[in-house]
Amino acid sequence: MYEIVAREDFSDSTFLLEVKYPLLAKAARPGQFVIVMSNADGERIPLTIADFSPERGTVTLVIQAVGKTTMEMQRRCIVGSALYAMVGPMGKPSEISKMGKVACVGGGLGVAPVYPQARAFKQNGAYVIGIVGFRSRDLIFWQRKFEDVCDELIICTDDGSAGIKGLVTDGIAMAVDKHPDIDEVIAIGPPVMMKFCAEATRARDIKTTVSLNPIMVDGTGMCGGCRVSVGGEMRFCCVDGPDFDGHQVDFDELMRRLTRFREDERAALERWQRNPGCRLEQEPTASE
User: Fold this and answer.
1) Cis before 22? omega within 30
2) How many other β-carbons are positioned within 10 Å of the β-carbon of residue 77?
3) Domains located in the chain, CATH noted
């Protein structure tokens, strides 16, 4: 059992959990992820590590409640409660080189997992440009944390209520125009966002690394559920990634695969919403 020692709600659907796990906090590196189960009968879900502190012995997860399991976690996971299981760190750590300039781009929930990378690049001596995107000012989180590790921070909002009005790709264009010598762009967020970030840097031949979070079951490369096409070759995100060359990823295939279980996910959510406190819910009938 892994105790939840802190929680913060960023919006109606996005929340932070800080979990006590000293060994994991000591071993974690930027770019890695964990697989968690909120309870003994729960689903295994992969979550990118948003922060870790060997000093406090904690790992931080930022979660968006969009389906049955994450909505259940939003309701049940409070300070003093515990996660039933947490396995990790998993995946290959991000390559943190001693490059001159790097832009770390996060969109929506992807803002959280790009933070450890921005911090690591800064600690390694790079000039770090943070580019973070939100729908509106009310959804902004961790601005101070990014300001502490970034030499420049560009905030983008869809409605223009904070920073510049536009998408993170507009922030990338602004950063590249000002710094044509950017060595690498790191982008984390929804697949469609990462796809267009990669397209924004392709013409300028800027190395672009993306972090993928496809459907995943065991996290060891055995099930094949997280396979992605990179440069025309099949790769397993859990053991070969999650970081890949954004210019080589087949994002269209990835997005199609993410919809594979959409109807099952919808049905599971509807059953849980009918009776969220009961584990004896009957299996769906043929009519459902």
Assistant:
1) no
2) 21
3) 2-90 (2.40.30.10), 101-211 (3.40.50.80)
